[in-house]
Structures are given as C-alpha cells and as structure tokens.
Automatic annotation (TrEMBL):
<feature type="transmembrane region" description="Helical">
    <location>
        <begin position="75"/>
        <end position="98"/>
    </location>
</feature>
<dbReference type="GO" id="GO:0016020">
    <property type="term" value="C:membrane"/>
</dbReference>
<dbReference type="InterPro" id="IPR018614">
    <property type="entry name" value="KRTCAP2"/>
</dbReference>
<protein>
    <recommendedName>
        <fullName>Dolichyl-diphosphooligosaccharide--protein glycosyltransferase subunit KCP2</fullName>
    </recommendedName>
</protein>
<keyword id="KW-0812">Transmembrane</keyword>
<feature type="transmembrane region" description="Helical">
    <location>
        <begin position="43"/>
        <end position="63"/>
    </location>
</feature>
<keyword id="KW-1133">Transmembrane helix</keyword>
<feature type="transmembrane region" description="Helical">
    <location>
        <begin position="12"/>
        <end position="31"/>
    </location>
</feature>
<comment type="similarity">
    <text>Belongs to the KRTCAP2 family.</text>
</comment>
<keyword id="KW-0472">Membrane</keyword>
<dbReference type="Pfam" id="PF09775">
    <property type="entry name" value="Keratin_assoc"/>
</dbReference>
C-alpha cells in the first residue's frame, strides 16, 4: 500500500510564492535574451508563446500564494488572472505578435486547468454512502 505524504513535506505558501516569482523572473529573462531565437521559425514562435504561458502560470501561482501569505482569499479570481495575463501578453508581444496569440490561447487552457484542479481540491463534494 502506498504511503501518503504528510502535510509537513509540502512547501508552504511563502516558499512557494518565492519560488514561483523566481521562476517567473527566470522565464522573463530567457524570453528577453532569446527573442531572436524565438522569432527565427514559426515553430519557435509557438514555443515562445508557450514559454510566456509558463511565465503566466508561475505568476498566477505566485500571486495566489502571496494573497494567502497576506491573509486574503485562497483561490485566484478574475482580477488575479488579468493581473498576470497582461504582463505575459506584453512579454510575448515583445517577441512576436504570433507569440502573443499563442500565449493567450495556451494561457486560456492553463487557466481552465487551474480551475479544474481547484474545483477538485477545494470544492470536492462529499459523498453520502
């Protein structure tokens, strides 16, 4: 039988917030330093949009954890999504316009996945046996 992990093994909101923002800064730097690489072929342009979507995802996780550290709501809403989406689209637009489009599409899918996970984790209905 597989053992379950203890809650003490899971990173707290503070360390997760720090690591998420650190990953966001790293992805921002990679996108800005490698913009010529991402513009060179159509497939790399799509890869640049996926990279900016990762930037969005890490920003969203970081903002959500920052809110939890400060004692605000636990689940990110529309304002947090917009706050994280605008810089990621701006970052993608500095690389190539197609990067911004693919970033928006990938980010919409990423937001849907975050929503599905949140529904499963936080709003799970209890079954009556």
């Amino acid at each position: 039988m597989a053992s379950r992990r203890d809650w003490k093994d899971i990173a707290g909101a503070g360390s997760s917030c720090f690591l998420s923002f650190l990953a966001s800064i790293l992805l921002f730097s990679v996108a800005q330093l490698g913009w010529e690489f991402f513009r060179s072929t159509p497939w790399r342009t799509i890869l640049g949009g996926a990279l900016c979507c990762l930037f969005y995802s890490f920003c969203l996780v970081g903002v959500g954890n920052l809110e939890e550290c400060l004692g605000f709501q636990r689940i990110a809403g529309y304002a947090e999504v917009v706050i994280c989406l605008v810089p990621s689209l701006g970052l993608a637009a500095t690389i190539h316009p197609v990067c911004a489009t693919t970033c928006l599409l990938f980010s919409m899918f990423s937001t849907w996945c975050f929503h599905q996970v949140a529904q499963h984790v936080y709003f799970k209905k209890t079954r009556q046996v």
